[in-house]
Design a protein that fits this description.
Number of helices of chain B: 12
Strand content of chain B: 25-35%
Number of helices of chain A: 11
Shape of chain A: elongated
Distance between the termini of chain A: 67 Å
Oligomer: heterodimer
Number of domains of chain B: 2
CATH class of the largest domain in chain B: Alpha Beta
Number of domains of chain A: 1
CATH topology of chain A: MetI-like fold
Shape of chain B: elongated
Structural class of chain B: alpha/beta
Strand content of chain A: under 5%
Number of strands of chain B: 14
CATH topology of the largest domain in chain B: Rossmann fold
Largest interface: A-B, 27 and 34 residues
CATH architecture of chain A: Orthogonal Bundle
Order of helices and strands of chain B: EEEHEEHEHHHEHEHEEHHHEHEEHE
């Protein structure tokens, strides 16, 4: 048994199935998250500016959008997928394959992204927005020049979390016709009882998650000038110490 | 000139409307440093925000150089706001921008050409004395430096007016003095009319030409600083302007007289003069006077002699020496 299992795992590697799975997972995740941001970012902005004490309060719109977003988010992803497959059929003519899965992932991720963006923008100091208003900034200028740049580090952290969530969803898509590491784990590992295949898929997924997480956080830290003070200070201290030693 | 006419502001709330301002009438002449003083919750922050319409008044007019801002279109309002700079207690700098980019911000909003903006930013940083901090981020600055950046930013578009909302309340006394000096200099050099919102007496004391006292949504008194400070009429103004005097005097019995030194009377030592010339020794209950350029300013409370004749003599002496006094504390 052990030998057979090993040989299947080796076969999967030899035939580049695993490699293809990694690639499919990455591109499904990245592409659908990116497109979800295309819709989710404006949606998050609209949620912020139409709220009660926002730049342009429109309570009914805010409540309606909030309700729709929550409704979509309350679907477990696997149910949302099967429920909305007809949309994929209508859009690209198929209910299966990576294309269909990407559409499902976009539908699931957009409301999630909108909430992420909303909470990032909420962190922007209201006083700064007020200062911009006092200078005669239009609402559009405030969004482009205050909200988005000031929230940049937080938006990046949000993007990291969203991407990892989508990655998790993409594995579920393997159950109903998508590709990627999730599908390999289910078809070769779970259905044919090869635990080692499952663990290899888990390990690769973990590595991808880790890379996204660390890379994103590094970027967010680098771009955040609020925390720069500490690093600069410690640098100064170090240089002072060096001077003293020399 | 800024005029507020019959200004009201109420906030709708579930438990009934909350009145923030009621029937505010105020005229701020060009070139003035106008202080608006009141306790927290009196409505002064709302008042200053009504001037540039960050808060929309419920009723009344806001006239800036004769133009009623409550009636102008949004686009025009953006233009008018560029002529009214504003600084805040919390500085409100853009944390992700450098000092120079913060000062450049209003110039970007007004679509200045890059070169012109660069020159203007350098000029402004020089004015506030922060040229060498141009590339620093706000998190690397002290509170006083942050407020200087905010001042440079507020002045970027050469506004005619500058609104200061508790601009020194988050600063230590020394830094406060420095920022107040800077504001005074801006008023003098650039001719900017400054409106200062504060709960600190010393701010009004040290830079303002005019003052309005606001209490519970109403302006209770206003006028030249020297006049209001010499003769505060309302209870709240007395509490704000001469709090210790009120506290000291309340606990003391007997007939009292409050002497006001306005810098106008001759520099004679009044109390010793009384003793020498009239042979009447009076008790000093309270004194807070300062000597500026050889003139005396401030307040003093003395007890009057029980004897009515002597009391009249004291008053006569004071009148002769041009010392203003009030029997009512």
């Amino acid at each position: 048994m052990q030998l057979l299992a090993n040989s299947i795992l080796i076969q999967l590697f030899d035939q580049n199935v695993i490699l293809l799975g990694i690639w499919e997972t990455i591109y499904m995740t990245v592409l659908s998250t990116a497109i979800a941001y295309l819709f989710g970012l404006p949606l998050g902005i609209v949620l912020i500016i139409t709220e009660k004490d926002g730049l342009h309060p429109i309570p009914w719109l805010n409540k309606t959008l909030g309700f729709v977003v929550n409704a979509f988010r309350s679907f477990p992803f696997i149910i949302l997928m099967v429920a909305f497959l007809p949309i994929s059929k209508a859009l690209i003519g198929t209910r299966s394959g990576n294309g269909a899965m990407i559409i499902m992932l976009i539908i699931a991720a957009t409301p999630y992204v909108a909430r992420m963006v909303e909470s990032s923008l909420k962190e922007v100091d209201k006083g700064v927005v007020e200062a911009a208003r006092s200078m005669g900034a239009s609402n559009f200028q405030i969004i482009c020049k205050v909200y988005l740049p000031e929230a940049k580090p937080s938006l990046i952290v949000g993007a990291v979390i969203s991407t990892i969530t989508v990655l998790g969803y993409s594995a579920m898509a393997g159950e109903i016709g998508g590709g990627g590491l999730g599908k390999i784990a289910i078809t070769y590992g779970y259905q044919r009882f090869h635990d080692d295949v499952i663990w290899v898929c888990v390990a690769f997924t973990a590595v991808i998650v880790e890379l996204i997480q660390e890379g994103g956080m590094l970027l967010a830290r680098k771009l955040d000038h609020r925390v720069r003070q500490n690093s600069k200070k410690s640098k100064n201290k170090k240089s002072i110490c060096k001077e003293k030693i020399s | 000139m800024i005029q507020l006419i019959h200004l009201d502001k109420t906030y709708p709330a579930a438990a009934g409307d909350v009145v923030a301002l009621e029937d505010i009438n105020l005229t701020i002449e060009d070139g003035a440093i106008y202080g608006i003083i009141g306790l927290s919750g009196a409505g002064k922050s709302t008042l200053v925000r009504c001037i540039n319409l960050l808060e929309k008044p419920t009723a009344g007019q806001v006239l800036v150089d004769g133009e009623d801002l409550t009636k102008v279109k949004t686009k025009r309002l953006y233009e008018v706001r560029r002529n009214i700079g504003m600084i805040f207690q919390g500085f409100n700098l853009l944390e992700q921008r450098t000092v120079e980019a913060n000062v450049r911000f209003p110039l970007e909003l007004a679509k200045f050409k890059k070169d012109a903006a660069k020159a203007r930013v350098a000029q402004l940083l020089e004015l506030v004395g922060l040229s060498e901090k141009a590339k620093a981020y706000p998190s690397q600055l002290s509170g006083g430096q942050k407020q200087r950046v905010a001042i440079a930013r507020a002045l970027a578009l050469s506004p005619k007016y500058l609104l200061c909302d508790e601009a020194t309340s988050a600063l230590d006394p020394n830094t406060t003095t420095a920022i107040l000096e800077l504001l005074k200099e801006i008023n003098k050099k650039l001719g900017v009319t400054i409106i200062v919102i504060t709960h600190e007496m010393r701010v009004v004391d040290s830079i303002c030409t005019d003052v309005a006292v606001i209490d519970q949504s109403h302006i209770v008194e206003s006028g030249k600083v020297a006049d209001v400070f010499a003769f505060p009429q309302s209870e709240i103004a007395k509490q704000l302007i001469i709090p210790e005097l009120i506290r000291t005097v309340k606990s003391a019995g007997g007939n009292k007289l409050r002497l006001v030194f306005n810098g106008e009377e001759a520099d004679t030592p009044v109390v010793s003069g009384l003793a020498i010339e009239c042979g009447i020794a009076v008790n000093i209950l309270y004194a807070d006077t300062k000597n500026i350029d050889g003139k005396t300013y401030g307040h003093m409370v003395i007890t009057l002699p029980e004897d009515e004749g002597q009391a009249a003599q004291v008053k006569e002496y004071l009148e002769k020496n041009n010392v203003t006094y009030k029997e009512e504390i």
